UniProtKB/TrEMBL annotation, chain B:
SUPFAM superfamilies: SpoIIaa-like (SSF52091). It comes from the Bacteria. InterPro entries: Bact_StressResp_Reg (IPR051932), RsbRD_N_dom (IPR025751), STAS_dom (IPR002645), STAS_dom_sf (IPR036513). CDD domains: STAS_RsbR_RsbS_like. It holds the Pfam family STAS. This is Anti-sigma-factor antagonist. PROSITE patterns: STAS. Residues 153-268 form the STAS domain.
Length: 146, 276, 132
């Protein structure tokens, strides 16, 4: 089922902001900011919920495995559709085996092990870059009509 | 660069039109004739533009008019189902017709060459434009159809107090499943129904992907606190489901909507009796 | 530390989650609820999540934990009022919250709890049924 989508479409950023995440209490305000962006591009409640849930999953990873980091929220447009892109950047240890981490049922932490593949199913575009010792960057995009 | 031959084309407008529609006929496009009014207007405007600008300035106001007309013709042709070949043939034939007349009018090869070069660049530019308009016209048709399909595809029917039914017609893909789930769950909330019947009589085939979508819908309904019955399982669907090794054991399935409704009545502890 | 209030209504406990959950808050709810069940020997727990706009895998796991833990302590948990968007998202995420019994709204949830209580004899069987 899981197909890694890497669409090379030209997207333009309309609005952008950066939020530092260092403690668990930063999570709720972040989710609210992401929701604001979703509302602004006119996303349906369902797509907003999917985007925020994906954000919630990824920000937990950022705190738990990356020791905190920063999150960039952008409202983007590809000419045909508008959407929201969220990027999670940490300087943690990185993920040793990315293929394994993208498999359903895998987890090193105490969550259910649905983190990455489940999250990927919630968004339209999912991109992960990781380097051992240098941290992980995950970018997700949810289109308004996606 | 002055090119008097191009300007003088205007004087041979009728002749050009005749040759053009002949060429269109020869190339198998019978519509050269039916589009006569449009073609006349197009020829007249284009020849005017060529006369005034001498083909030097393709951004002039006169050319704007020609382009606007052409885009209109092209997108309306797309909507009426013309093939891309016919669409391209339209302008290519025009170029051919104009070239023929030019070679009759101009004897000097250098001047003729120049005139053809300008004509070529003007028409090529327009061909690109018509293609863009043609594609856009097609895309409009497609997106309108998508809207129409998603509108008609998911009616949720309240069949009894506390029971809603949703007949699915056509193939169930992932985006359609989303719409089905959203509508069904919202109706469940709005009507406070505790039983939902998903009728798949109108689904042509059930493969593992479709089954997965059905299972998802059932799971989501249960998460909300309602039960979901799948009805309309035809014999061939039962066969493929088993052959493909799809596990539907956790799901209540019924052959017909009637038996699903009967099951719903049982769950609600209702009985339907005949009056004596 | 922020906490979610737990109300006692006879044999039942009622929890209405009105704020967006973060992990610590959810963990606190889990332990508070189990302690309260113990304190009052409650027979049922009703968790109203109609105001909750998102449930991710962690919160889903907490809900599952609460259901199983209270079950061991002989109390039945019913989760009520899940938003359609939340249900669809959970399914896409791959969480089916096995063991959690749901109802459409508080009223239906109460009926379900009462039915389960007064059918004490076949409670075990009913639970299995709902659990597939």
């Amino acid at each position: 089922m899981a197909i890694i989508r890497s669409r090379l479409m030209t997207t333009t950023t309309n609005n952008k902001e950066e939020i530092l995440i260092i403690k668990e209490q930063d999570v709720v305000p972040l989710r609210n900011r992401v929701r604001d962006y979703g509302v602004k591009v006119g996303m349906s409640i369902l797509n907003q919920t999917k985007l925020i849930t994906a954000t919630s999953e990824l920000v937990r990873n950022l705190l738990k495995y990356g020791g905190g980091g920063k999150v960039v929220i952008e409202s983007v447009s590809n000419g045909r559709d508008n959407g929201v892109r969220v990027t999670f950047i940490d300087n943690g240890p990185g993920i040793p085996d990315i293929t394994l981490a993208m498999k359903d049922g895998y987890s090193t932490g105490k969550s259910l092990g649905l983190g990455l593949p489940g999250t990927k199913r919630l968004v339209n575009e999912f991109d992960i870059k990781t380097e051992l010792g240098n941290g992980t960057t995950v970018t997700i995009t949810k289109w308004k009509n996606g | 660069m002055q090119n008097n031959v191009l300007s003088s084309l205007k004087e041979h407008e009728n002749k050009l039109l005749t040759i053009w529609s002949q060429l269109l006929l020869e190339n198998g496009s019978t519509d050269g004739i039916t589009e006569e009014e449009e073609s006349k207007e197009f020829t007249s405007l284009l020849l005017d533009a060529l006369r005034i600008s001498n083909g030097n300035n393709q951004e002039s106001e006169e050319f704007e008019k020609v382009h606007d007309l052409l885009i209109g013709i092209s997108s309306s042709r797309a909507k009426r189902g013309f093939s891309p070949r016919e669409n391209a043939q339209y302008l290519i034939s025009f170029k051919e017709a104009a070239s023929q007349i030019l070679s009759e009018l101009e004897r000097d090869p250098v001047k003729l060459y120049d005139a053809n070069l300008i004509l070529g660049s003007v028409i090529d530019n327009m061909t690109i434009m018509t293609f863009e308009a043609y594609m856009k016209g097609r895309e409009d048709v497609i997106s309108r159809q998508i809207d129409e399909i998603s509108e008609i595809s998911t009616p949720v029917i309240r069949v009894w107090d506390g029971v809603v039914a949703l007949p699915i017609i056509g193939t169930l893909d992932s985006s359609r499943t989303q719409v089905v789930m959203e509508n069904l769950l919202q109706q469940i909330v709005d009507t406070g129904s505790s039983i939902a019947i998903l009728d798949i009589s109108g689904v042509p085939a059930v493969d593992s992907l479709v089954a997965q979508h059905l299972i998802k819908t059932v799971s989501a309904t249960r998460l909300m606190g309602a039960e979901c019955i799948i009805s309309g399982i035809r014999p061939e669907i039962a066969q493929t489901v088993v052959h493909l090794g799809i596990d539907l054991t956790g799901i209540i399935t019924k052959a017909s909507l009637a038996s699903a409704l009967q099951t719903a009545f049982d769950m609600l502890q209702l009985t339907v009796v005949k009056r004596k | 530390m922020e906490r979610i209030p737990i109300l006692k209504m006879g044999d039942f406990l009622l929890v209405t989650i009105q704020v967006d959950l973060y992990d610590q808050l959810a963990e606190n709810l889990e332990s508070d609820l189990i302690n309260t069940i113990n304190k009052y020997s409650s027979k049922g727990v009703l968790i109203d999540i109609s105001a909750v706009s998102i449930i991710d895998s962690f919160m889903g796991r907490i809900l599952g934990n609460i259901a199983v833990m209270s079950k061991i302590m002989d109390a039945q948990t019913v989760v009520v009022g899940m938003q359609p968007a939340v249900a669809i998202t959970l399914v896409e995420l791959g969480l089916s919250l096995n063991g959690v019994i749901s109802a459409l709204n508080v009223e239906k949830g109460m009926d379900l709890l009462r039915a389960k209580m007064y059918n004490g004899d076949n409670q075990e069987q009913t639970y299995d049924d709902d659990n597939e």
